[in-house]
Amino acid sequence: MPYRQALNLEPGPRSAQEARRWAIARCRDLGREDLCECAELAISELVTNAVLHGEPPMVIRLRGTREHPRFEVRDASVIPPQPIQPGGTHEHGHLVLDDLVDGLDDEQLVSLLTVGRGLDIVARASLAWGTEVEEDGKIVWFEPASELAEEAGADYQLTRSAPPPDIDDTRADQIAVQVQGVPIEAFERFQDHFLDLRREIRLLALAHQDDYPLAKVLSEHFDALETPLRANMGREQVAAARESGDPTIDLRLRMAPETARQIGGLIDLMDASDDFSRAQRLLTAPRTSDQRAFQIWFLGEFRRQAAGATPVPWAQQTQP
């Protein structure tokens, strides 16, 4: 049975109610009804904080494993969550709680006023929780406990995705890498998949290193590859091609040979991650065969051209 792993939410007080129903349903899907109460409490608090202090769009997701499910609330603000101030004032946007309650029925009003009781609720309802701040937003995550603790026990963990350094294109030891005929949609799916998987493995290693030692090893390799990948993936070229309506693009990049070999080495790492996903029953699915075939070709071009080979376009790669 497929899991409904993500839900888009419209900003507003009703979003907390929708998020609670969704979280309870996901716990039941996993056969973890023991987590329903804490999942409901924590996601209510985080979604309400996102409404009051965050920026749209807002998405909630289910990640982790069946043994250690993790709920995530993502919004476009890069400011980590803060407790709601007395009186409901939103210190970042000067949003007053009264502005949100107009037109609500009694049940919705009680819902809004009772869930924003401080982030200590999240800590008491969680085995682990934290925030990952990215370039274009943040993800606040928690792993629900089986019962609400009397005092906060879970330590808050804040991580940040650092922007890639500036690349010096004038170095004499750089090589030109040309990746020809790249399907834009497949390329963007690869970028999204890599970033999601890197974060998934990293958070699992952070919260459960003893339970998943392989996650720590994979996380270290992903972190080592993140900078060369983000710095050399031609995002500006892809954005320009998409705006012009082109279905494919030729990427022309310059980098040190060692960087190209590092990027090519991601082929083996992605295969190891697929095996880990299956063995540890990650709720983030392994790649499809089509995704894997594209990635082997795409990443293989970096490895091949670092060794002096000529480019092989995607169209030639897919010919029978």
How is this structure best described in words?
By secondary structure, this protein is of the alpha+beta class. It has two domains: 6-160, Histidine kinase-like ATPase, C-terminal domain (Heat Shock Protein 90, 2-Layer Sandwich); 175-317. Helices cover 47% and strands 18% of the residues. The chain has twelve helices and eight strands. A six-stranded mixed beta sheet has the order 1-2-3-5-4-6. Strands 7-8 form a two-stranded antiparallel ribbon. A hairpin with a 2-residue loop joins strand 4 (126-134) and strand 5 (137-144). The longest helix has 24 residues, at 184-207.
Ends distance: 35 Å
Number of helices: 12
**Helix/strand order:** EHHEEHHHEEEEHHHEHHHH
> Using DSSP, what is the number of strands?
8
What's this, in brief?
With 320 residues, the chain is an alpha+beta fold. Helix content is 47%, strand content 18%.
Strand and helix map with partners:
Layout: E1 6-9, H1 14-29, H2 36-53, E2 58-64, E3 69-75, H3 98-101, H4 106-115, H5 120-124, E4 126-134, E5 137-144, E6 156-160, E7 175-183, H6 184-207, H7 213-231, H8 235-244, E8 248-255, H9 257-264, H10 266-279, H11 289-306, H12 314-317
Parallel strand pairs: 4-6
Antiparallel strand pairs: 1-2, 2-3, 3-5, 4-5, 7-8
